[in-house]
Amino acid sequence: ESPWTQNKGILDNVADTGFPRGVAKRVLSVQDGEHYTAVERLGSVAAPRSSPESDYCVAENPILELQAAVTRVINECPWALEQTPESIVEYLEGEVDEVRKELGLSPRDEDQEDEPVAASQTELDEMLEDELGDLLMNVLFLTSVAKSQSKRSVSIQGAAKRAVAKLHRRCPYIFGTEKVESIEEARAVWQRVKLEEKEAKPRKDS
Hints:
Low-confidence stretches: 1-50
Oligomer: single chain
Shape: globular
C-alpha cells in the first residue's frame, strides 16, 4: 500500500485546514524517507541543511510545514489524542511564561523565577525564537483540538483572517485615511473602534 493511501485520512485533514494538498504530500513524503522522488515531482526543493531546523522544513513556508506536522501529531500521537482544550490552554499559559523569561520579564509566578543564563546574543535570540515557536505550536494545537474534541467550527486560517481584518479596522491611520499625531491618539482610535465593534455585536438575552 502506498504512503499516500496509508495517510489518506491525514491528507484529507490537512486539506480541510485550508493548506494546499501538495504541501501535505510533500511533508509526508520526506518523513516517509523512501519516497523522496515524490518531493521532486511536486516541484519542491529541499532547504539547505545548514541547521537542524532545516532538516525538517523543506517547503518555502515553515508555517505550512508546522501546520502539517501538528495535524499529523494530532492524528497519530497517543498523547495528543488524549488532549483537551483545557489541557492545551495550560500548556499555552506555560509557554507564555517561558517567553516572558526569555524576554527578561518577571514571571507571573514569582516562585518560578530562574537565574539569568550566561549566553551570547545569538544564543539568546535562538532561545527566544525556540520559545516563540513553542507558543505558536500550542496555538495550532489548540485550534485543532478545539475543532476535533469540542466540535468547534474553527481553523487557524479563520483566526488569521479575523486578526488581519481587526488590524485594518483598528488602525485606519495605517490602512486607511485617518491621521494621528501621537501614541495617545493612536490608542484612542483603537479603543474607539473596539467599542464600536462591541456595540455592533448582537446582545445575548439576559
